[in-house]
């Protein structure tokens, strides 16, 4: 299954089903090759995909660096 391959490669980091909807949510780590990764999915011709870029929140960055 292509999704499992992408997870094993570290391209697809997390994947959730949205309860009550025919929808999923994924966290991907391939900003420069995202379109290529999405196109490799067998479901791609039938999927309506929205991409929302994320950035690290300052609070999270401070916690990870050990600063308060």
From TrEMBL:
Q: InterPro entries, per this entry?
A: Dimeric_a/b-barrel, MLI_dom
What region holds the Muconolactone isomerase domain?
3-58
Database matches in Pfam families:
MIase
Official protein name in the record: Muconolactone isomerase domain-containing protein
Species of origin: Streptomyces axinellae
């Amino acid at each position: 299954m292509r999704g499992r391959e992408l997870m094993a490669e570290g391209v697809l980091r997390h994947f959730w089903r949205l309860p009550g909807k025919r929808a999923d949510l994924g966290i991907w780590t391939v900003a420069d090759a995202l379109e290529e990764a999405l196109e490799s999915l067998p479901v791609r011709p039938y999927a309506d995909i929205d991409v929302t870029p994320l950035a690290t929140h300052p609070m999270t960055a401070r916690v990870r660096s050990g600063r308060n």
